[in-house]
Amino acid sequence: MNSFTFHAPTRFCFGEGVVAQLGESVASCGWHRVLVVYGQGSVVRTGVLDQVARSLDQAGVSALQMGGARPNPEVSFVRAGIEQARAFQADAIVAVGGGSAIDAAKAIAFGVPYEGDVWDFFDKRVPIQAALPLAVVLTIPAAGSEGSSSCVISNDRLGRKVGASSDLIRPRMAFMDPTFTYSLPAYQTAAGVVDMIAHICERYFSGVGPVPVTDRIATGLICTLIEQAPRVLANPQDRDARASIMWAGTLAHNDLAGCGRSLTASGRAGGWESHGLEHEVSAHVPTVAHGAGLAVVMPWWMRYVWRTDPSRFLSFGREVFGIEPVDESDQAVTDAVEAAIDELQAFFVSLGMPRSLVDFGIGEEAIDAFVETLRITKGERFGAFQPLTMDDARAIYRSCFKPFTPPVWEEGEGDRGEAAV
């Protein structure tokens, strides 16, 4: 286990009806004028925004509402929010929605005190030195932004999607009511689950050897998501399953699942290779849901790099899917690892996720554009488990256009089958 610093200052209020506590909690922090940032209307239709407004009003907190944060939030929305927050003299931001609304709110929060253009933080890697405080009302569990130190913003003009991070943008408080997620479409729910699993895997495959405590937290979260996701798709109002998924999404990305797995005490675990590769896809094609893109990209990244450390993938297959090699031969190890990766992608497909990038209407001619902007964002090499060159990235993207056929285990092959041939 490597040295680490675990910083998780967010106060989580979890359960049915907790949004009623929002106004009093905001007022108790001394925040009197807040910009309320939300997405493209679902919180209006479900009445969540009305509950937020009522709670703030009852506590004597003035609020200005700003809607329109799209999936893969765009920097023009952030710039407009910064201007509105300044004109309103907001002393805090309240985000209502999922990762898109929260990430946009975070960028607004650190853009307000900055004299330059907010894109500087993403393009020039200007460090975040000040930010307005942030509260969150979560309605879409997926990105984990309610407890994380990061946000990701797109720039359509440049065809780029880039992240920025600082503990200054971890939300001060998050209000999480699982009943708010009952109306989520199945596709959005599934994409969110994939994103959560990817957040855990980015840390699990971080180029660091076994860290038993953290590793069991990580695989336990993945197993929970695999168990609970089908329940939610079968019954969208299964409160316990919704609650489990919502809380797992937070723990997947508040750095708990990476403790002791980072290369530096203050750094985040993992090289985030799958996220880096996928961000280029949804940057160039903003209609691609991030989690849905990861459902294709991450398994193919795994297939490309697993030989760098087969033992890591064997532990993943054993703890998550009960897959073990039948002996110590190279062929048995290969079969076991590939079976585990196939099982993961098959699970994604079972949730209704795409089988390849072709399913998004993207052609292989897009690869050059993906690689070009990836190079601008990441440089010539990036990653931790196995540093990737741009040629490596191109090969992985090319694989993402292959059709994937989920495996069919024969009866009697054990717990999802031993990797026997």
What does this 3D model show about the protein?
Residues 9-178 form the Alcohol dehydrogenase iron-type/glycerol dehydrogenase GldA domain. One of its GO terms (cellular component) is cytosol. Residues 189-399 form the Fe-containing alcohol dehydrogenase-like C-terminal domain. It contains 15 helices and ten strands. Strand 6 and strand 7 (160-165) form a beta hairpin. It is globular and about 70 Å long. It has helices at 22-28, 42-45, 48-58, 75-88, 99-111, 120-123, 186-204, 212-234, 239-253, 273-284, 290-305, 310-321, 330-350, 367-378, 390-399, and strands at residues 11-14, 33-38, 62-66, 92-97, 134-138, 150-155, 160-165, 173-176, 381-382, 388-389. The longest helix is centred in the middle third of the chain and has 23 residues, at 212-234. It is an alpha/beta fold and 421 residues long. The chain has two domains: 11-181, 3-Layer(aba) Sandwich (Rossmann fold); 187-399, Up-down Bundle (Dehydroquinate synthase-like, alpha domain), CATH 1.20.1090. The strands form three sheets. Strands 1-8-5-4-2-3 form a six-stranded parallel β-sheet, with helices on both faces.
